[in-house]
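Notes from hallway chat w/ T.B., transcribed later so I don't forget. T.B. wanted the structure written out for a chain they're using in a teaching module, and asked if we could keep both sequence and structure tokens in one place. Agreed to drop them here.
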Amino acid sequence: VQLQASGGGLVQPGGSLRLSCAVSGRIFRIYRMGWYRQAPGKQRELVATVTSDDIRNYADFVKGRFTISRDNAKKTVDLQMNSLNPEDTAVYYCNVLTSRFGGVEYWGKGTQVTVSS
């Protein structure tokens, strides 16, 4: 199973980026898809997740600015990020969980997001 993330880059404060993650390989069921991030010197933290029944969970620091969406048929998950600020600078990781109980978790390699003027 592979998770390929794309869409990272350099953006000015107040700008927007859209991250996308495509899941490939032998994976037949995905319960939860999401994005995490890790800034230099900090622990990895949850950004947003969405379950197979479209229950979305956002970290407090992105509420109202980021929107997560998934396409079950295409096995993709996107993160629309608006009103970015320098504190959003981090490596963003795609994550999937196959089942709510006893599932297998997979991680992508990460994509760099830098917010700077």
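Follow-up for T.B.: The chain has no helices and eleven strands. Might be a good example for the class.
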